[in-house]
Amino acid sequence: MNFNNRFRNFMMGRYGVDQLNKFLITLGLIIMVISMFFPNIITYNLSLILIIICYFRMFSRNHAKRYKENNIYLDYKNRFLNIFKKLKLNSEQRRKFHIYKCPTCSQKIRIPKGKGKICITCPKCHAEFIRKS
Q1: Predicted confidence (pLDDT) per residue in 91-126, tens digit
Q2: What share of the chain is helix, strand, coil (3-state, %, to 5)?
Q3: Exposure class string for 63-85: b at 16+ Cβ within 10 A, else e
């Protein structure tokens, strides 16, 4: 119990663990395991550097800088994940809809499948064209 109090006092005012730290420690451990099966000094050193950076961030007292770094990481992570979310949404929509481009203004128009030949009016330029849905 004495150790818990000492550790709590030591960590008081320090930054602690955030999403970037979790990512760095996970990546470092994965690279370390890979370097155990395929021995290479570069991968081993890279894993150690990532783990050291993680601990440096965890014990840092500069909250503003660590918070900013974490926000930048989360921004890039969300951009990366949004690419896959858009691909998933597009594939779901292509099952239920045909997506046509207007011949005059190239506006994308979504038409439900299974309606036969229909006259499509572009909502942007009001051009009409006939397509099979």
Answers
A1: 888 889 988 999 899 899 988 888 889 898 999 898
A2: 60, 15, 25
A3: eeebeebbeebeeeeeeeeeeee
Which tokens belong to 55?
Answer: 């601990």
Q: How far is CA 100 from CA 1, 13, 118, 131, 133, in A?
A: 68, 58, 12, 9, 10
Query: Considering the chain, what is the average pLDDT of its residues?
Result: 91
CA distances (Å), origin 121, targets 112, 113, 126, 127, 132: 14, 16, 6, 6, 13
- Three-state secondary-structure class, residue 102: coil
Please give the model's pTM, rounded to 2 decimal places. 0.69
For 4-53, give the DSSP string: HHHHHHHHTTS----HHHHHHHHHHHHHHHHHHHS--HHHHHHHHHHHHH
pLDDT, one tens digit per residue, over 21-48 is: 999 999 999 999 999 999 989 999 999 9
Task: Please give the structure tokens belonging to residue 32.
Answer: 């370390």
